[in-house]
Amino acid sequence: ASCVASELVSPKSSAANTNTGLGIYDGKKTTIQKHPYIASLLLDGSLWCAGTVVSSNWIITIAECVYSLSTSDLSVVVGSNDGINGKKYTVKSFATHPKYSYGNFDYDFACVQISGKFKWSSKTKPIKIGTKEPKANAKFTVAGYGDTSAVGAPANNDLLQGTLMWESKSQCKTFLESIGITWTPRLACGYNKGKTTLCQGDWADALVYKNAVYGIFAVGAASGFCTSDAQPSGLADVT
Asked: Are residues 103 and 142 in the same domain?
């Protein structure tokens, strides 16, 4: 994408921030039993990105979360209420979409394979991937760990959930182009003005509707990021 770095926030652009918990502004406390598909992707043992369990040994995330890394850098935790204390797996392999190019938000998808298989329980279950474009303004649940406001706030690793509305593609296109992102149908937006928004470290949090994932968080506008003034969250559309 042709964009001005200072206008955007994404995983690598915010890597210098030490407060890398996953979090949701205006989120409400929840439990992993209500969101057993959630995984956390750890980088050198610290929370880095979210993942979504889609099969017995694979999670999906955004490509930027694994690009240029090695399997030894990463691990996956599932069944956790804080993103750290749960069942931990080493990473066997991962693959970004073959058309993904670093710095471009098109085809921003990756699959991560764990060593072994997940053990299904009330805290760990797969979720299906949506197959049809949702209707505009459909209400989606999003959940993640940690920070609840802008960088510098006290860390909080509780699992939190909130609600985002799916924006129409035309609304999303207008917004993303306004912050310098080249539009592609593989992008989407979620928004809940003045209420729930996604924060530093929420990368790849899943937007879930009727027990299926439709989008994963990929990019945010720096202006108002993780505040009540936040703009829509840019998503990788996985449908």
From this structure: no
Q: What is the pLDDT of residues 60-99, one digit of tens each?
A: 999 999 999 999 999 999 999 999 999 999 999 999 999 9
203 and 134, same structural domain? yes
Amino acid at 101: S
pTM score, whole prediction: 0.88
Q: How many domains does the chain have?
A: 2
- Across residues 15-23, what is the average pLDDT? 38
Whether 231 is in a domain gets the answer yes
Annotate 36-53 with three-state secondary structure: CCEEEEEECCEEEEEEEE
Sequence-separated (6 or more) residues with CB below 8 Å from residue 107:
63, 97, 98, 99, 100, 101, 186
Evaluate whether residue 214 is within a structural domain. yes
- Give me the pLDDT at residue 41, please: 96
* C-alpha to C-alpha distance for 166 and 141, rounded to whole angstroms: 10
Determine the residue type at 65: C
Q: 114, 149, 181: which is the final residue of a domain?
A: 114
pLDDT by residue (tens digit) across 141-157? Answer: 999 885 665 555 545 57
Write out the residue range of the structural domain in which residue 157 sits. Answer: 128-237
